[in-house]
């Protein structure tokens, strides 16, 4: 994988299988698994912004899960931020996840801890020890997402858009080279979604690649970028501007 590539998938097929990352061979998992996608071939470079679109159940989340090793890659070649997905062992998964940021639609925040504590918890859990550095980094990410005045707010005291910003701040704590976002604007009103999109574009411009699934083609129209379409078990790149122009 070239130094600038953060994702490289070659002739990949993706299966949902029971007990991934265990002792069973890939062949055995493939035999008992359910095929979701095949012939997947694409790469993403540092700083790129990529949309994933497709109907409900077309495999967008499953592909994202494969990239952060929630689903095991059983067929083809796959490399994410320097980790070979075919050779990945269960114990290596936390190290891969420290190099990527993950943003879900359901925020998965610690509801009994404030903004600062939500971030502090993650930093301690990912090996940061020096208090001053932890505080500095928390200040930096909160500033980046525009929540610098909200350190002591509880999650329930934040709006949906602010909660999503906090999730993005959390994903950025370890300076990832890749941000994976699964329908991050799905629960947000159009104006708030717009703010989140602009934040993602700023993040991409800083050099961190952003891969985001969405059902919202208005966003693509407004913020054009590379687009991968999931259809009939395959993934193909499309010229979205040409496509939207014809509608
Ligand atoms: N844990 C699982 N075990 C087996 N099959 C699964 C599992 N999770 C999802 N699937 C199947 O994988 C296929 C792809 O689902 P996936 O959630 O990746 O689609 P999606 O494109 O993200 O959909 P949506 O737009 O609704 O989020 C579906 O047929 C789904 O039923």
> Helix and strand string, N-terminal first?
EHEEHEEHEHHHEHEHEEH
**What is the β-strand count?**
10
**Number of DSSP helical runs:** 9
Residues in helices, as a percent range: 25-40%
What is the top-level CATH class of the largest domain? Alpha Beta
* Spatial strand arrangement across the major sheet: 6-7-8-3-9-10
**Biggest beta sheet summary:** 6 strands, mixed
Q: How many domains in all?
A: 2
Decide which structural class fits the backbone. alpha/beta
Identify the CATH architecture of the largest domain. Answer: 3-Layer(aba) Sandwich
- Distance separating the two termini: 38 Å
Protein name: Cell division ATP-binding protein FtsE
Domain ABC transporter: 7-247
GO molecular function: ATP binding; ATP hydrolysis activity; transmembrane transporter activity
Pfam families: ABC_tran (PF00005)
Please describe what this structure looks like.
The protein has 247 residues and is of the alpha/beta class. The protein folds into 2 domains: 5-99 and 176-246, Rossmann fold (3-Layer(aba) Sandwich), CATH 3.40.50.300; 109-175, no CATH class. Helix content is 36%, strand content 26%. It has 9 helices and 10 strands. It has helices at 26-32, 60-67, 93-98, 115-125, 131-144, 160-172, 190-205, 217-222, 240-246, and strands at residues 5-16, 34-45, 49-54, 75-80, 83-84, 100-103, 178-182, 209-213, 226-231, 234-238. A hairpin with a 2-residue loop joins β9 and β10 (234-238). α6 (160-172) packs parallel to α7. The protein is globular. The mean pLDDT is 93. Adenosine-5'-triphosphate binds next to β2 and α2. Adenosine-5'-triphosphate (ATP) binds at residues 16, 34, 36, 54, 56-62, 230.
């Amino acid at each position: 994988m070239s130094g600038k590539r953060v994702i490289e998938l070659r002739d990949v097929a993706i299966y949902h299988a029971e007990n991934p990352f265990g002792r069973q061979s890939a062949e055995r998992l493939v035999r008992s698994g359910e095929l979701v996608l095949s012939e997947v071939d694409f790469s993403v470079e540092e700083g790129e912004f990529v949309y994933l679109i497709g109907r409900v159940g077309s495999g967008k989340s499953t592909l994202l899960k494969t990239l952060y090793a929630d689903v095991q890659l059983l067929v083809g070649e796959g490399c994410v931020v320097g980790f070979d997905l075919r050779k990945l062992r269960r114990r290596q998964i936390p190290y891969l996840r420290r190099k990527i940021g993950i943003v879900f639609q359901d925020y998965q925040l610690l509801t009994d801890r404030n903004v600062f504590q939500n971030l502090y918890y993650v930093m301690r859990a990912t090996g940061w020890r020096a208090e001053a550095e932890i505080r500095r980094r928390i200040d930096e990410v909160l500033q980046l997402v525009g929540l610098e005045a909200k350190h002591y707010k509880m999650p329930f005291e934040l709006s949906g858009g602010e909660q999503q910003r906090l999730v993005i701040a959390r994903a950025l704590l370890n300076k990832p080279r890749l941000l994976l976002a699964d329908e991050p604007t799905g629960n947000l009103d159009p104006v708030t979604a717009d703010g989140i999109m602009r934040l993602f574009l700023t993040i991409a411009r800083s050099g961190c690649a952003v891969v985001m699934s969405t059902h919202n083609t208005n966003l693509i129209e407004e913020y054009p970028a590379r687009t991968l379409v999931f259809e009939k078990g395959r993934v193909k790149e499309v010229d979205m501007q040409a496509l939207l122009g014809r509608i």
